[in-house]
Design goal:
165 residues, alpha+beta, elongated
Length: 165
């Protein structure tokens, strides 16, 4: 009888330890250019929109999630709320939000930023005589993993691409 009880306790203990060590991971975001430093950018007001906000939230009941919030979705919603032609955010802030209401909770991401039209920014730089194409190619082509950023370069409207150094 004692052996059966000990086996039961061991089994329950093992089950509890297993439940307490469960985890997961999720891809939060992919980006072309990102910086946490102040970067001086001269952008005409016609290429900038008014500050926008986007969020993606998911509910949970008794700690069981009913969805998964996605940071990329929050960023996309912020950019899309600015209107047609806008394709990036500057001066952005990302918030992680978690609200708990007794048996339910809501978690997710809120993104704020100033939308810009990158094609107009590139055209402006070229009009001002800056060699923006070479600067952009060098900046976009940099990657710590040595990845090819052809898609990112095409999205900015840069057609020529410098050979990898």
């Amino acid at each position: 009888m004692k052996i059966c009880i000990l086996r039961g306790v061991r089994l329950v203990s093992l089950g509890v330890v297993g439940l307490l060590t469960i985890g997961c991971s999720a891809r939060m975001l992919d980006f072309t250019i990102i910086s946490s430093k102040n970067v001086e950018m001269r952008i005409r007001d016609t290429a900038k929109g008014t500050r926008v906000t986007g969020e993606d939230m998911a509910w949970a009941v008794l700690g069981i999630p009913l969805g998964a919030p996605n940071l990329k979705e929050a960023i996309d919603r912020a950019i899309e709320s600015a209107g047609p032609g806008y394709d990036a955010l500057i001066d952005g802030v990302v918030y992680h939000i978690y609200n708990f209401y007794l048996v339910v909770s809501k978690a997710g991401y809120k993104v704020e930023g100033t939308p810009v039209k990158t094609r107009e920014v590139i055209a402006q730089a070229e009009q001002e005589g800056e060699n923006f194409r070479k600067f952009s190619e060098k900046l976009l082509f940099h990657s710590s993993r040595g990845l090819d950023n052809r898609v990112a370069i095409e999205k900015t409207g840069i057609n020529e691409m410098k050979a990898k150094e």
